[in-house]
Amino acid sequence: MSWLVVARKDFEDSIRSRWLQGLTALFVGLVALIAVVSLRLSTGGETISTNALLGANFMGLLSGTLVPLIALVIAYSAVTGERESGSLKLLLSLPHSRADVVFGKVAGRSAALSTAIIVGFVVPAVILALGPLSLDIVSYVGYTLLVALLVSVFVAIAVGWSAAAPSQRIALGGAIGLYFLFVPFWDIIQLPLQIAISSLPEWVPVSGTAISNALFLLNPASAFQGLTNALLQGQLFSGETAGLQVSALSMLLFWLLAAPLVGLLVFQRRDL
Amino acid sequence: MSAIQLSSVTKRFGDIEAVRDLDLTVESGEIYGFLGPNGAGKSTTINMLLDFVRPTEGTITVLGEPVDAAGAELRERIGVLPEGFDVYSRLTGRKHIEFAIDSKEANDDPAAILDRVGLTDAADRPAGGYSKGMRQRLALGMALVGEPELLILDEPSTGLDPGGAREMREIVSAEADRGATVFFSSHVLGQVEAVCDRVGILHEGELVTEDSIEGLRDASDNEATLILTVDDATDDDLDAVRRLDGVSGAAVDGSMVTVSCESDAKTDVISTLGETGIEIRDIETESTSLEELFLSYTDGEGVVEKEGAGTGEAAVATPEGGQ
Asked: Considering only A82-91, B73-82, B175-184, B267-276, which range has the smallest mean pLDDT?
């Protein structure tokens, strides 16, 4: 299990990164801030549930925009950075294949960021438990795990891109491009797209809903939103969107494997 | 079985031919010194042995297996000290060695390896603070893990002080005594001379000579260096001398002309210079050293450094370095 050795090394290395520590602190701070602000707002005496808190707009905004950003920042240089510094030579001098390197890095860096995120949610959970909020532990844990999955998917995309990119500069440019594509741009095109879809000519063989669902699923960030919304409404993998949710989860898992695989195919052919 | 075999290997980077039609065989159990000036193609060749870089043409086998098809398992039997590598700056020296042990599924004791390469005191500091020499020792330590059948060391003495370079040679000899094949490159003849069974000299991507150290020494004994003081000479004036049989090189520096040639060719050189119209005022003869022979093979490129050159780096290569 050579990739596991690479993953463990990469985890130990990433967890010591100032960037990771700084971004984790920022994330913990923001989640805690949201928790505290919610407590203030609920001084009327009534208890609000953590589900309402996690479902709040700014919480969705935080997970949906900051988590992909953190993942891309931490992982875009996973392969190119090592290639440019030369540590990749040290790594490939050992009995690791290039596939071990790519998938090991996805696993190691995802594990490092997931750890950071779990810590990021434990701290506010403590604050919440002390205050007049009812903690719905199941959906809270579920939400945390979904955030960890989201971060892993974006790590996989970033590592895949990093393996394929010919230089560190292009890796950085591409990571910025991927972020803007998946986060703000996807939202911006939603409205014009809906209008376009609603006036589809007759001859188009797919329905407007199918196109809109496909676009929704394709973006890991929106697939994540769909899943968390269902989770917080207590309708995970049930209710009328159950089929769509299964597709959303499958899509996330698809990204997790396909992105590094495509990157690997390019990386295999390349001189170091 | 040959430890390393390259057959008609060519590597082009765009228009540049880094290695040209190279045939090279390293036998099991020998210490092979791969010598040449910087830019001769040594690292490209080594990178191809490790499948870091793929040859444009030709085939390469290492320990009997073709490197392009062998996969990562082949590297379980090889210890590598690459050129132009970097360490994981956030991880300690000990972590690096442990990583190599885990990767090779070996059961070495990290402390013993660290001791062997002289990093015991620095073992628990992040490697990012290591000097160049210490990084070199660390990578050598990683290469030694798992008692590899073959050691491939690319410029192993880089950044080492004279003491460190000697320790490096001792380790190379000890590994060879254990039965390992050692293939190492250097642009410093002195590093190679003391330990190698055989030497290959690479120049502009081609193997210009391959011999034992004794063989090279015999060749150098036949060679002489003529140092002539003249009234005036330009580089063009020496073309006629260079064309002579037995002349391996000629250079001019002001009023000083230096010619490397076989001992028998000395009179020809002097008379040819006379015919060119150069007035010779003084003649000195020196027997050619191994260094000068090396230079003659490489057109004087890649100045032969005496051991211990680069003491600036050596000064940093103390355990206190990089704090």
From this structure: B267-276
How close B199 comes to chain A (CA, Å)?
Answer: 24
CB atoms inside a 10 Å sphere around CB B72: 18
Chain B hits for A8, CB-CB cut-off 8 Å, are 102
Query: What is the rounded average pLDDT of the residues A68-92?
Result: 93
Question: Whole-angstrom Cα distance, residue A9 to residue A3?
Answer: 10
Scan for tokens 């490096």, then name that residue.
B168
Question: Could you give the angle at the alpha carbon of B212 between the alpha carbons of B211 and B216, nearest 5°?
Answer: 70
CB atoms within 10 A of CB A119: 13
Q: Are B10 and B17 in contact (CB under 8 A)?
A: yes
Rounded Cα distance between B180 and B6, Å, is: 19
- Going across the sheet that includes B206-212, the strands are B78-81, B150-154, B181-186, B31-35, B198-203, B206-212
The arithmetic mean of pLDDT across residues A136-144, rounded, is 86
Domain B223-286 has CATH 3.40.50.720: no
A179: number of Cβ within 10 Å: 22
pLDDT at B240: 85
Q: Which residues of A touch B81 (CB under 8 A)?
A: 93
In tens, the pLDDT along A119-132 reads 888 877 777 777 66
The reply to whether CATH 3.40.50.300 applies to domain B2-77+148-218 is yes
Determine the Cα–Cα distance for residues A155 and B109; give it in Å rounded to an integer.
34
- Residue B257, pLDDT > 60, answer yes
Task: Give which of A173, A152, A164 is closest to A263, Cα–Cα.
Answer: A164
Number of C-beta neighbours around residue A61 at 10 A: 12
Domain spans, chain B: 2-77+148-218, 223-286
pLDDT classification of B227: cutoffs 50, 70, 90: confident
The pLDDT mean for chain B works out to 85
| Residue in the structure block whose two tokens are 């490129």 | B301
B262-288 pLDDT, tens digit each: 877 888 888 888 888 888 888 887 766
Give the count of beta carbons closer than 10 Å to the beta carbon of residue A194: 12
Query: What are the structure tokens assigned to A152, written together?
Result: 């892993």
ipTM: 0.86
What does residue A85 show for φ and ψ, rounded to 5 degrees?
Answer: -75, -30
In chain B, residues 39-98 whose CB comes closer than 8 Å to chain A: 47, 50, 52-54, 71-76, 78, 80-88, 90-91, 95
Query: Hey, where are the domains in chain A?
Result: 2-184+219-268
Higher pLDDT, A200 or B8: B8
A85 touches chain B (CB under 8 A): yes
B residues 300-319 lying closer than 8 A (beta carbon) to A: none
Contact B141, B147 (CB under 8 A): no
- pLDDT-based confidence at residue B147 (cuts at 50, 70, 90): very high
| Token pair for A206 | 């797919």
